[in-house]
Design goal:
Elements: H1 4-17, H2 32-39, H3 45-52, H4 57-63, H5 66-71, H6 73-83, H7 89-104, H8 113-137, H9 152-178
Length: 183
């Protein structure tokens, strides 16, 4: 098997060059490098995050299965806490739901597992709510133009909803700040 750094560098080079058009075979031996990188701890965390950035959320979930998380809980926890904020807001919210479940089942024996899960979930929800508010505000673009078929009143209504969703995002962020600190 290729070294984890080699695989990570090769994947980065492919994506930078734009030649990574063929789907990556996530069942190949190279993917086990994510497991190896996560299990290696802090010394390989950056490489694990780089590799995970080339994978879908479901591919990361498949690689970090129950047995792996149970056997490498501390290292996996560090990885998951660093990985989630790198995801786009809606993707992050989806991943946080899975991560929270892992903290409550597989990694429940870790100190502060419930608190870490709560923080990760709330941060993801706040980010997704903020993104949703922005998306609702951007609906105006669909009402402007020679072929626009959407009435401006729809965009006006959605802008009102955006304000409410932004308030929800702010309240979620305030709740995150009120959570006990986690290591």
């Amino acid at each position: 098997m290729a070294s984890s750094v080699t695989v990570s560098n090769r994947l980065k080079a492919l994506f930078r060059s734009g030649s990574a058009v063929a789907p990556i075979d996530w069942t190949s031996t190279e993917v086990t490098d994510l497991r190896a990188l996560v299990a290696a701890g802090d010394s390989a965390l950056h490489d694990a995050l780089d590799l995970a950035s080339t994978m879908s959320v479901s591919a990361v979930e498949q690689q970090l299965d129950y047995d792996f998380l149970e056997n490498h809980a501390e290292d996996a926890s560090r990885f998951l806490r660093a990985w989630l904020p790198r995801l786009r807001p809606f993707e992050r919210m989806q991943a946080a739901e899975w991560v929270t479940t892992q903290y409550l089942l597989t990694m429940v024996h870790l100190d502060h597992a419930h608190g870490i899960a709560a923080r990760l979930q709330m941060e993801a929800l706040a980010a997704a709510a903020g993104e949703l508010a922005d998306t609702l505000d951007e609906f105006w673009a669909l009402t402007d133009g020679p072929d626009a078929e959407v009435d401006v009143s729809v965009a006006t209504a959605l802008q009102g909803l955006a304000t409410t969703v932004r308030e929800v995002s702010a309240r979620l962020s305030a709740e995150v700040a009120a959570l006990p600190p986690t290591p």
